[in-house]
Amino acid sequence: VRAAHEAGAAWGRLPAKERSVRLRRWYELMMENKDELARIITAENGKPLKEAQGEILYSASFLEWFAEEARRVYGDVIPASAKDRRILVLKQPVGVAAIITPWNFPSAMITRKVGAALAAGCTVVVKPAEDTPFSALALGELANQAGIPAGVYNVVPCSRQQTPAVGEVLCTDPLVAKISFTGSTATGKVLLKHAADTVKRVSMELGGHAPFIVFDSADVDRAVAGALASKYRNSGQTCVCTNRFLVQKGIHDKFVEKFAKAIERELHVGSGFDAKTTQGPLINEKAVEKVERHINDAVSQGASVVTGGKRHSLGKNFFEPTLLSNVTTKMLCTQEETFGPLAPVIKFETEAEAIAIANAANVGLAGYFYSQDPAQIWRVAEQLEVGMVGVNEGIVSSVESPFGGVKQSGLGREGSKYGIDEYLEIKYVCFGGL
Question: Where does the Aldehyde dehydrogenase domain start and stop, copy by copy (predicted)?
């Protein structure tokens, strides 16, 4: 933190173009080393290599985007009510930003935050997840090669035992001006409490419980393809993964049948380094146990296992991609975020019923629905209580789009033209005596 603070004045005073050039060079180095960086991700969290390669391209794109945005931090001149005054609005870096990131996207969750922070003129201290420190350190090596000055990008890896203490230090140190965290809602609340005493700026991208609604008018084949992509990417371990499938009565049986066949045909469990693998291991034993608990609870209350349902024969942390039908809103899997390869399907009758079920959660990160009725598309998109909506689309993340949630899914937005605002203070200058 002290190193970041000491480096901050010089970095913040650099012309925006110079910061832009160095961020651009960092992006180029990521692209030159993309295969090695992807292998690090797969070795760290088991993600299939093809997905890891996709993450590196996505990750690097944030450095490219914010290298460009660095030169577009515009202030304002506001017409004054008095003749002898001029009102100016300046935007300035907030200062040292503490960046706390998760294991499921160990590269992209760093660059999405750090790219914006460095473009704004802030310096950063990155605390990567204890499961995936190497991706953060590799990015640090490339930052050095790109000419990012010492102290501007700092990494503090630590053990699981030390994580709470390190998090508390980052949130309470008076030299830290900003906290940006991606992770669980429970941890986010702890960090918010720590940050309150020094009234730090905070960005929180927390847990989700994404609904995926399939209306009777939907193109079933497109809905199945979207469901497969949305649910089983990274073995169901993303914050925007679908957690609850709501399928309208008239199309329900057809959807479940086609979805089950697609799961069995297209998903392959195995080592992330095996070219045919689409489903790697879960991150740890605790994650596997949670999936098992959700399945057992649902089955005990009358749910049916359509496909999958148990640990994979490969053993360890591998689990079969699972589809459940006859699911109700009273089951654990529809009340909690599973964060694993489990797709529970709830049958509904009316649009109003689907909206009510979708909005019953106290979180609201992403939501998806499939419909070919234009009026219904407008109604549902506006009524879903989430920060991001996919309409006839199962993958919504892109560098140009504002990423974030409502309710207990977080505060602030990342990526897009809005992402850099999280690292800027607005200063009003009243120029009088004219």
Answer: 1-429
Q: How many CB atoms lie within 10 A of CB 89?
A: 13
* Whether residues 242 and 283 fall in one domain: yes
Q: Nearest-CA neighbor of 133 among 100, 165, 161, 164?
A: 100
404 residue type, one letter? G
Question: 3-state class of 243 per DSSP?
Answer: strand
Q: Is residue 401 part of a domain?
A: no
Alpha helices in 176-313 (DSSP H): 185-196, 220-232, 252-266, 285-300
Q: pTM for this one?
A: 0.96
In angstroms, the CA 317 to CA 312 distance is: 8
Task: Give residue-wise pLDDT tens across range 227-283.
Answer: 999 999 999 999 999 999 999 999 999 999 999 999 999 999 999 999 999 999 999
CA distances from 408 to 31, 283, 329, 361, 366 (A): 35, 24, 20, 9, 12
3-state secondary structure 299-315: HHCCCEEEECCCECCCC
Residue 57 and residue 41 in contact, taking contact as beta carbons nearer than 8 Å:
no
Query: Judging by DSSP bridges, how do beta strands 410-411 and 201-205 pair with one another?
Result: antiparallel
Q: What distance in Å separates the CA atoms of residue 319 and residue 305, rounded to the nearest whole number? A: 14
Claim to verify: residue 112 and residue 251 sit in the same structural domain: no
Does residue 214 share a domain with residue 200? no
Structure tokens at 338: 């599973």
Question: How high is the pLDDT of residue 235?
Answer: 96
Instruction: Examine the domain organization and report whether 87 and 114 are in the same domain.
Output: yes
Q: Which amino acid is at 51?
A: E
Residue 129 falls within a domain, yes or no?
Answer: yes
* Tens of pLDDT, residues 165-211: 999 999 999 999 999 999 999 999 999 999 999 999 999 999 999 99
Evaluate if residue 315 carries a pLDDT over 90: no
